Amino acid sequence: MDTRSLDRLGDEIAELSAHLDAATARLLDLIREFDARGGWNTGFRSCAAWLSWRVGLAPGAAREHVRVAHALGTLPRLAQALARGELSYAKVRALTRVATPETEERLLAVGRAGTAEHVERIVRGWRRVDRQAEARESARQHASRALHVYPDADGTVILRGRLTPDVGALLMQALAAARETLYQQDRAKEPEGDPPTMVQQQADALALLAETALHHGIDPGAPGERYQVVVHVDADVLADADQPGQSVLEDGARVPAGTSQRLACDASRVVMRHAPDGQVVEVGARTRTIPPALRRALHHRDRGCRFPGCGVRFGQGHHIRHWAQGGPTTLSNLAVLCRRHHRAVHEEGYQLDRQPNGELRFRRPDGQLLPEVPPPREVRGDPVKILRAQHDAEGLVLNARTTTPGWLGERLNVGWAIDVLHPLAR
Ligand SMILES: [Zn+2]
Ligand SMILES: [Zn+2]
After folding, report:
1. The predicted structure's pLDDT at residue 226
2. Fewer CB within 10 Å, N or C, the chain?
3. How far, in Å, CA of 330 to CA of 332, rounded?
């Protein structure tokens, strides 16, 4: 074996790797800008979903690219080290899981000194300390939960308390819903006197919550039943969004016709006939727009959302031609779409049809086809030469030693390293 030629081969691998890392820094800059400007928001769920679709990254790798791109936006030293080919993408990826602007400098030193494996182990140890700190904080919050309810001298009742963030969000959501209900009823009445202030409304909302809880029994219900949406919609509106007519939620809020079409696409349906004066004259039986057996066949065939690049497992049955417009409820007229993409089709102007050969065809609102898999961009010329030339032009000098860590073979003591480096280590 000619060791000299193998050394040269090894050097070439190392040098090209440094070029690729430097180019990856540029790629991440582009991804960050594309995400910030919403370039993927053309029917895709996220920047990662778009990346996966457009350049063929595996979904997990695409999410990591977006995450690292974001992290580097606030970590200039790590970003620069990647751009100069000094740290590999693998190291930067690991370090950005824990680095903050305060700890960036120390972690950069770890990346420079250690191998990729050292970096992985330090980051794992670091996260353990972070998680312990988080768990301590969340346990502290949970332990400090309290609600004091006590009568004042004049007989009014005083409330004071502290809730964990999730329970607090639940309470605020419930208060907002109760306030909405009360406020809407108030608007319907003749205005007399000053409208109640926000804090007065909050007090009224809490009273309504208490009444409602006692009236309905204290039963949070199964997750699927907790939130139900009832839409009242005129048959004409359902068939043609341009028709005037009503399309309102149970609480009186109006929704766009596209929304009621989406909600009706795959739902339980009760048909009521109204006399011209608004009186209900006939109520039909509740039926599913898509019967259970057909739904099973549909999910078996589609295996998740059919929108290009999506593939979310759970979805709704979409009528390609709406049933209210005479579209049949048959497998060929149905397609599974996730909630996000069902909205895209009904409310954002995306179009979907089935071609004679059975293939689905999606179009953006501007009429552009959205292929299931976009054709790859053609690479013209030798990519290695192109990278080298570009980096030369930027004055970036990379060689076979650029990514070599400073490690000299000493044993890594992760526990000691974390104790020294992590600000929260005890
Ligand atoms: Zn639909
Ligand atoms: Zn989808």
Report:
1. 40
2. N
3. 5
In whole angstroms, give the CA distance from residue 355 to residue 277. Answer: 45
Q: What are phi and psi of 37, to 5 degrees?
A: -90, 5
How many whole angstroms from its chain centre is CA 104? 27
Residues whose CB is under 5 A from ligand 1 (ion)?
265, 318
Task: Give pLDDT, residue 106.
Answer: 94
pTM beyond 0.70, yes or no:
no
> Closest ligand to 317 CA?
1
What span, in angstroms and rounded, lies between the C-alpha atoms of 86 and 388?
Answer: 16
Joined together, the tokens standing for residue 30 give 């582009």
What's the CA-to-centroid distance between 350 and ligand 1, angstroms? Answer: 11
pLDDT at 225: 38
* CA 287 to ligand 2 center in whole angstroms: 26
Residue with the bigger pLDDT between 400 and 20: it is: 20
Q: What spacing in Å lies between the alpha carbon of 47 and ligand 1's midpoint?
A: 24
Phi and psi torsions of 283, nearest 5°: -125, 120
Contact 18, 12 (CB under 8 A): no
Structure tokens at 18: 């440094």
Average pLDDT, integer, range 377-402: 82
Q: How far does residue 293's CA lie from ligand 2's centre (Å)?
A: 22
**In contact, 362 and 44? CB cutoff 8 Å:** no
Q: What is the pLDDT of residues 167-209, one digit of tens each?
A: 787 788 889 888 888 877 555 554 566 778 899 999 999 999 9
Q: What are the structure tokens assigned to 204, written together?
A: 């009224």
Ligand that comes closest to the CA of residue 333: 1
290 φ, ψ to 5°? -120, 110
Centre of ligand 1 from the C-alpha of residue 306, in Å: 12
Domain chopping of the chain, boundaries: 3-139+380-421, 171-185+199-217, 231-363
CA of 318, nearest ligand number? 1
Query: Mean pLDDT over residues 223-231, rounded?
Result: 48
